[in-house]
Amino acid sequence: MEQYSESDVTAAYNELCADLATEGQIAATDWDGLARVAADAEGMIANELARQGMNLTDAVNAVQESSTKTARATDISRRLVEASKNNRFQPIQASNDQGDNSGDSAENAEVSEAPDDGNASDEKSEKEQAPAPDKRAPASVSAIVPQPVAMVSASVERAQRLRNKIDYKVEMKKVSEIFRAIDAKNPLFDFEVPYIAWDKPHPGVPAVDKAYNMEEDSLATVLYAIAKKKSTAIVGPHGAGKTKLVEQVGARLNIPVTIIPVDGQITRSELFGQEKIRSTASGPESYFQYGILPMALEEPGFILFDEIDRADPAIQYACHSVYEQTHLLLMEHDGRRIPLHQFNRVFATANTKGRGSDDGMYGGDNEMSEATRDRFSLWIEIDYQDVEDDIMVLKAKITGLDDKCAKVIAKFAQMIRNGFKDASLSQTCSMRQQLEAAEMAVHFIATMKAKTKEEKMACLRRAIDRVIIGRANEQDKNSMQEFLTSIEPSLTTV
Q: How far are the Cα atoms of 21, 27, 203, 339 from residue 33, in angstroms, in the given order?
C-alpha cells in the first residue's frame, strides 16, 4: 500500500468531492446533492484504502477525520483519487497488515448480527434483489462497499438514509394561495412561504384538519418565522393547541413535523445518538447510531421541541446551535457538525416563558437560562379558544352531535379552564377531552335510542363523567358538579 499522510487523504477527499459534484451536475445550492456527494467520496476513498490493505475501520475513520479539513492536492493524493474512481466496484481484498481483523474477503464475509439501528433488513434478500450497478452514473454507497460488509462508517449509513429520502421540489407560494380562509387583502399575509412538493406522500406530514381554526395574528407570526428562518417559541396553557398550531401549518405547507418531547424523560442517547457495538465476521465493530434530532436535520421539516421549559438544562445548552438554526454539534460523535437542512425550521412549545409559574400550575418546569431564551427570535402567546369556536369544532368533527350537547360541553370546558387558570382547579379541559365526551354522548344517545331532552342529557352526563370528571380529585369533582348545575340543572344526576 502506498503511504498516505493525513494531508494526502484530506486533499484526495476534497478533490473527489469536486469531481463527483461536477460529474453529477450538482449545483452549489443543492444541499442534499452535496451531502450525497460527500458521503460517496468518503465511502469511495475508505473502500480504496481498505482495498489496498488498510483495515476498513481505520480507513473509514481516516477519511471522516479528513472531511473537516483542507489541504493542497499532490501527485500522491491525485493517484488516490484516480484509484478510488477506477476501483469503485472492486472488492476489498483479504490482505490486512494489521492482523487482528483480517478475516475472510469482503465478498465472502457473513455478518453474524444485523445493525441494531432500526434500519436493518434481510441482507440475503437485499443481495438477491439489488440491481447491478450502473457504471455510467456516480456510484451509490451500496455499490461502493461490497456487500454484506457491515460498515463502521456513520457517514455511509447517513448517505444510505439520504438516498432513501423522498425526492421533492420547493415552490414559493403566496400565503393566500395556501391559507384560503384568511383575508387575502390583509397586508400581514402579503408574502411568500415555501411549499414542499414531494414525489410521493411523505409519512411525516400531518393530516390537514379542516375544522382547525387558526388565529390570524399567531398564524402571521409563524409564517413570518418560516419565511425568514426564525426560531419560534409558542407559550400557553396545557391544551390550548400549541403543538396543533405547528402541525396544521406544516400540514398546509406539506412539511413534515418532528415532535421531540424534551420534558425530562428523553435521554441524550435517544436525542443525539450513541456509539454501539455489533458483531461481524471479522469481530466486534463499533458504529454510531444517530438519534432523533440529527436524523430530523437531514430533510425539510419543522423540528418542534415540545415542553421545552421542562427540558434538562444540559440538553438545552447542547441544542443552542439548533435553536439558532445553524447546526448540531454532536459531541457524542467526536464533535461532528450536522448542518440543518436549508428548509428546516425550529419551534418550541412551553407552558411558561422559562421563568417558572407564579401560580404554581407548572411547578415541575425548569427555569430557562437567558442564553437559551435568547436563541428564540419570536415568542407567541396563545390561549384557549372561545366557546363559540369550540362549538364549531365539536359540530364539525362529531357527526350527529346536536346543538344543545355541543353548547353544554363547550361551556363546561370553559368553566374548568377558568378554574384552572385561577388555581381553584388542579386540572384543565382540552379540546381532546371535549371531543371524546361528545363522541361518547352521541354513541349512548344512539344505542339507548334517547328521544327526550332528559334522556339525551342523561347520556351526555354519562359521557362527561367517564371522560372529564372521572379523572378529577374529590375537590375538583365537587366544583365541576356545581358547573354542570349552573349550565343545565338536569345534569345534576344521571
A: 8, 8, 22, 14
Please state, in angstroms and rounded to a whole number, the distance separating the CA atoms of residues 328 and 310. 21
Contact status, residue 256 vs residue 302, Cβ threshold 8 Å? yes
* C-alpha grid cell, residue 166: 423522498
Which cell numbers hold the place of 160?
444510505
CA distance 80 to 165: 31
Q: How many CB atoms lie within 10 A of CB 18?
A: 14
Helix, strand, coil proportions of the chain in percent (round to 5)? 45, 15, 40
pLDDT (average), residues 79-101: 61
The reported pLDDT for the residue numbered 74 is 78
CA-based nearest residue to 276, from 161, 162, 124, 114: 114
For residue 130, pLDDT over 90 is answered with: no
User: Taking Cα atoms as reference points, which of 413, 387, 231 lies closest to residue 308?
Assistant: 231
Q: For residues 159 and 148, which has the higher predicted lDDT (pLDDT)? A: 159
Give the side-chain half-sphere CA count within 13 A for 58.
Answer: 16
Question: How many angstroms separate the CA atoms of 317 and 336, rounded?
Answer: 16
Q: Which domains does the chain have, with CATH numbers?
A: 6-97+109-121+141-163 (no CATH), 168-381 (3.40.50.300), 388-491 (1.10.8)
pLDDT at site 289: 85
Q: What pTM was estimated for this model as a whole? A: 0.62
CA distance 223 to 376: 15
Beta-carbon contacts of 265 under 8 Å, excluding residues fewer than 6 positions away, are: none
Would you state the cell numbers that stand for residue 39, as one nine-digit string? 458521503
Summarised one tens digit per residue, pLDDT across range 409-442 is: 999 999 999 988 888 888 889 889 999 999 999 9
Which alpha helices (H) appear in 182-275, and where do they start and end?
A: 216-228, 242-253, 268-271
Report CA dihedral (179, 180, 183, 188) to the nearest 10 degrees: 20
High-pLDDT (> 90) share of the chain, %:
27
